[in-house]
Amino acid sequence: MVKIAPSLLSADFASLAEELKDIERGGADLVHLDIMDGHFVPNLTFGAPIIKALRPHTNLTFDAHLMVYHPENYVKPLADAGVNMVSFHVEAAPHADRIVHMIKDAGMKAGIVLNPATSLSTVDYLLEIVDYVLLMSVNPGFGGQKFISYTMDKVRSLRSMISERHLNCQIEIDGGVKAENAGKLAEAGADILVAGSAVFGKEDRKAAIAALR
Ligand SMILES: O=C(CO)[C@H](O)[C@H](O)COP(=O)(O)O
Ligand SMILES: [Fe+2]
Question: For ligand 1, is residue 181 a contact (CB within 6 Å)?
């Protein structure tokens, strides 16, 4: 069963608790939280204090996507804020193995993220230890961008790598996911579909989530 993870990046930042309740009622499986530091990506969003304040307002799984340098500094604050899954960019982390273990030791699921043009070979060894790989299908930093078409093949290739080695690693895809490409992405092997503008950009979030599903 493919999971739908609306990204809070496209929500109304003045009403985040209400927006969370709306997607929970609408049938979302997780909520995707884009944490940007204004350095790794040219944009700035929110961090652990805001996430902690939102935690009592929903039972949804909190899926944090770190677009930051020094992701290791964010692990404990995010665990304390009630985050369930944390992923960080391989491009931002020379000591990725250590950070994966830090995340797991803090009681969360650990994921590694690849920019669209980053080769799958960079996570070859990490596949043995991560719970999921997040493939970016847009260049990170902003919502509402167009899906980069070659990442469809990347999902397929990663699915083969995982199956051949009988690993238990999920694939999450993020950026430009719409009802029009969701089916193809699931067929290619994605387990979790992140969708920001395709959910929060619509008046009726329940219908938007149903269309993706
Ligand atoms: O990580 C992200 C951007 O860096 C977001 O999760 C992603 O862009 C979601 O937005 P949309 O579905 O509108 O493309
Ligand atoms: Fe994201």
Answer: no
105 is catalytic: no
Domains of the chain: residue spans and CATH: 3-212 (3.20.20.70)
CB neighbours of 207 closer than 8 A, spacing ≥ 6? none
User: How far is 112 from 78, CA to CA, in rounded Å?
Assistant: 16
Prediction ipTM score: 0.98
* Residue 111 annotated as lining a ligand binding site: no
pLDDT, tens digit (0-9, with 9 covering 90-100), for 41-77: 999 999 999 999 999 999 999 999 999 999 999 999 9
The answer to whether the CB of 6 is under 6 A from ligand 1 is no
Active site residue 37: no
In short, whether 116's Cβ falls inside 6 Å of ligand 1 is no
